[in-house]
Automatic annotation (TrEMBL):
UniProt name for this protein: Barnase inhibitor
SUPFAM superfamilies: Barstar-related
Annotated Barstar (barnase inhibitor) domain residues: 6-88
Similarity section: Belongs to the barstar family.
Taxon lineage: Bacteria, Pseudomonadati, Pseudomonadota, Betaproteobacteria, Neisseriales
Native source species: Crenobacter luteus
Amino acid sequence: MPLTKTCVIERVGSLDDVYRALDAQLGLPPHFGRNLDALFDSLANDVEGPFAIEWRDTAAARAALGAPLFDSLIDLLREVADERDDVTLRLEP
């Protein structure tokens, strides 16, 4: 099995920060539409695995993004990890 790529998300102040981290470290496809539906589709179908997403400082990110958006992102990432055998998600407070 190939080595797992790890995407570290930290110091999040906006949704664009999350998109930039994922794109820079995992290589989102050129057609990525910069919305949550497109993010799910890209991570679930387009990004080659295996990969891990490690989100650090989640409490600060939740405060910066607001609870509804942060919770939606976490739900999305968990769903991708549940659907794909080659994706892991680690959340750090």
